[in-house]
Protein: Amidohydrolase family protein
Amino acid sequence: MKTLLQNAQLIGKNELRNITIEDGVIQSIQSVKLPIKQEENVVTINLEGKVILPAFADIHMHLDKAFTYPSIQNKSGTLSEAIRRFQDYQPSINSEVLELNMGKGIYSAIRHGTTALRTHLDGESSEYIKHVVEAYHAVKSKFSDYIHIEAVIMCPFNMTLEMEKDIRWALNNGIEHIGGAPHLSEHPQKNLERIFDIAISENADIDLHVDESDDPQVNTLPDICKLTDEANYNGRVIAGHCTSLSAMDKEQAHEILQGVKESKVSIVTLPGANMYLQGRNDQGIIRRGLTRVKEMIELDIPVTIGSDNIQDPFHPYGKADLLQMALLGSYGAQLTSEMHMNKLIDMISIIPGRLLKRKHGLTPGCLADFVILEVRDPRLILAEQTPAREIWRNGRKICKVTEVVEFDPLLSAKMISI
Ligand SMILES: [Zn+2]
Structure:
C-alpha cells in the first residue's frame, strides 16, 4: 500500500513537501509545487504544514534502572552514591519487575518519538545477569513491531574470571554489544584490555561509559583510541560521557579529540545525567558537566545525544523524550545558532540511527519512521517542546499524542480579543 503525506514542513526547506511511502520506505520527497502523479489505492494525508522529522533513535539508555526513583534515592547526587544504591537494590529485583520497568521505558520512548534504542544492562552479578537477559528478550520480542531494540552488557569495573564467564554467557545469549565503565576500575587499563579481548573473541561492538568525571586526570579516552586501532575496531566503538575532556586544558583536549577522530570512535553526550551528577564539588559557578560537544561538531566527529538514566538514582528526571534532551544539550553546550539547533535534531535522529545501522532520515530509501510535530516553524521545535506528536514506524502511525488545553470560557474570550 502507498501513502502520500501532503504539505509536510521539513527543516531547512522553504517550500512544503509531499512525501510518498511504500512498503515502509520513503519513495519520494518533492516540492508541493510539482504535480502529484495520480495513482489508485493511495492513502492521502494532509499534514497542513506540520513539521516532520526522522524518528528519534535513543542510543544510550538504562532501561533496567528506569523508574526505580523514588524507591532508590541519591542523597548526595553523586555518581558513586547512585552506583552503590543501585547495587544494594539489585538482589531484590527479579525478571518480572525488570520487564515491567523496561516496558514502561519503551512505551515512554515510543510516545515521545523514538523507534530505535540501545540500552545498557548491568552485569555485576550472575543472578542479576540471568534476570536482566530474560527481561530484555521478553520486551524485545513484545515490542518488535514498534521499535528496534538492542543491548549492551556492562562489564563489572573489577572483573574476576567468574564474572567474565557471565559476560560471555550474556553475549552468547542474545545481548549484542559489550560495555562497561573502565575509568571506575581500580585498574582501568586492565579492565579496558579485558573488555576489548572479550569483544574481539565474541565479535561484539563496544559501547563504553568513559571518563564520567570532573577530574582532568581521569583520562582513559586515549587508551580507548589506541586499543581501537590495534584491534581494527575503527567504527565499532562508542564512548559515552567523556566529561573530563571539558575539565582539561584546551590543547590537551584537542589532541585527544584528534585521536578520537582518527580512530573513528563515536561519542554520546548525556546532558540530563551529566548536569545532574557532575560538578557536585563545585562552589559558586557550578560546571554544566557536558563534554566538548561544540568542538566535536567542528571536528566532524559523530556525536549524538541519549537519554541515559530515566527516573532512577543516577538521574531522577527525564521521560525518554529526546526533544527534552536536545534542549538540555542546547543549554549545556550552548548550541544555540540555527545551524546548531538543526544539528541537535540530527544528533537525536539521523546520527544515532546511523550508529545503530538504521536508515533514519528524510530522503528516498530511508525508513518511513517519522515524528510529526504540532509545530509549523522548524526554528521553534526546541522552544515549543510540543507534547502533540504522531509517531510513525515502517510507514504506519503507531502513536498519536494530543494536547488539550481548556481555559475558562471567559478567559478564552479575552485571548481571542487581544
Ligand atoms: Zn549510561
